[in-house]
Every structure is written in C-alpha cells, then in structure tokens.
Write a structure and sequence with these properties.
With about 200 residues, the protein is mainly β. The protein has one domain: Electron Transport, Fmn-binding Protein, Chain A (Pnp Oxidase, Chain A). It has 3 helices and 12 strands, in the order H-E-E-E-E-E-H-E-H-E-E-E-E-E-E. A 7-stranded antiparallel sheet has the order 3-2-6-9-10-5-4. A 3-stranded antiparallel sheet has the order 1-11-12, with no helix packed on it. The protein has a two-stranded antiparallel sheet with strand order 7-8. Strand 9 and strand 10 form a beta hairpin. The radius of gyration is 19 Å and the shape is globular.
C-alpha cells in the first residue's frame, strides 16, 4: 500500500495549463463580486498633502506588522508617496462616499474643503475615518499595471464606532445592520495561530 503524503510535503511539479488571458471586462465583472473596504492613502511631501482612494489595501503580516496597497502605474499620487517614504491608510466609514469619489478622481486639489489632522508622521488623517494606519514604505514590487507596496506599520489610530464603507460590483455600499450581530471569525488579525488564512 503506498504511503500517504505528508501534510507538509510539496505538491508534485506540474506544468501550468496554457490559457489565454481573460478579457478585461470579464475580469472586472468577476473580481467585482469580491467586496472590499475603501481606504484613502495619504502622505505629505514638501509640506503639501497628497492622497488617493484605494480598494487594494490589506493586512500582510503580524510579525513584523506590515500592510500592502496597490497603486496603478499611472497614478500621479504614488510618486509623491514614494518620494515621501511614508503614508497613512485612512479606513473610510459608511457615508463617506463623496470623500472616496473626490480622492478617486484624477487631478485637482483633492484636499479642498476636506477636514483633516496630521498623524505623527505628518500624513493626513481624514475627519470621520473609522481608523488609520501609519506606515513607512518597506518594499515596492512591479505587478502588471500596478505596483505592490508593502508598508511597515509605525502607528495606529483609535477605532471609532461605525460601519465601514464598502465597494461591491462597481458601487459603494454599507454593511447591512439588519442582519443581526456580526459573526465572530477567527482571522489573522483576531487569532494569530492561523497559519495560512487571513
């Protein structure tokens, strides 16, 4: 009888299947079914604030504490953040759709009429955000038409009550408060014994 493979054994090598890249519209449609939160990534450089709306933000590591975000290669704000070497991820709350739209637009003064205070690094903390994460840029990797930026966490803001602003199928949404109490899920951030799931 053949020996059962060990749980930690590497899978046998196999050639990846050859397949054509999916159409961009279908890719967007399918990935749009993955609901995300909405952040505004901010910095200050040469005394001027800069920022952009970002869905592609996530926790990366507990030890050391790292997060990641993914700016487009065509982003006008990313070079400013790269030059500054630090950023603040503002987690937007339900009701901050206009803020997300403003920071999602190209050009113009995105901070016009926006109330904010400075994190210890000087990066803007937007009024009304659920919380914020201050980081130093740790590493940058090319990833298709985006960059993958890892940030080392250097400060954390207080968490205020409220529901997050969500983005789902091309629209802003909010967590449904009518579904009963939130389910407790053991995740990387809640229970660090998990080894392979966030």
């Amino acid at each position: 009888m053949p020996e059962a493979p060990r749980p930690d054994a590497a899978p046998p090598e196999a050639a990846p299947p050859e397949a054509a890249a999916p159409e961009a519209a279908l890719f967007r449609q399918v990935l749009g079914h993955f609901c995300t939160g909405v952040t505004v990534i901010t910095t200050v450089c040469d005394g001027r604030p800069a920022g952009f709306a970002c869905q592609a933000f996530a926790a990366l590591s507990l030890d050391p504490p790292l997060v990641l975000f993914c700016p487009s290669r065509s982003s006008l704000t990313w070079p400013v953040i790269a030059r500054a070497g630090h950023f603040c991820a503002n987690v937007l709350a339900d009701g901050q759709q206009d803020l997300a739209r403003g920071f999602g637009a190209s050009g113009g003064d995105k901070f016009a009429g926006v109330r904010w205070s400075a994190a210890p690094s000087g990066a803007p903390v937007l009024d009304g955000a659920l919380t914020w994460v201050q980081c130093a840029v740790q590493a940058v990797h090319e990833a298709g038409d985006h960059y993958l930026v890892a940030g080392r966490v250097t400060g954390l803001g207080p968490c205020r009550p409220g529901r997050p602003l969500l983005f789902y199928r091309g629209r802003y949404a909010a967590a449904d408060p009518g579904r009963g109490p939130a389910e407790v899920v053991d995740t990387l951030l809640a229970w660090p014994r998990h080894a392979d799931w966030m």
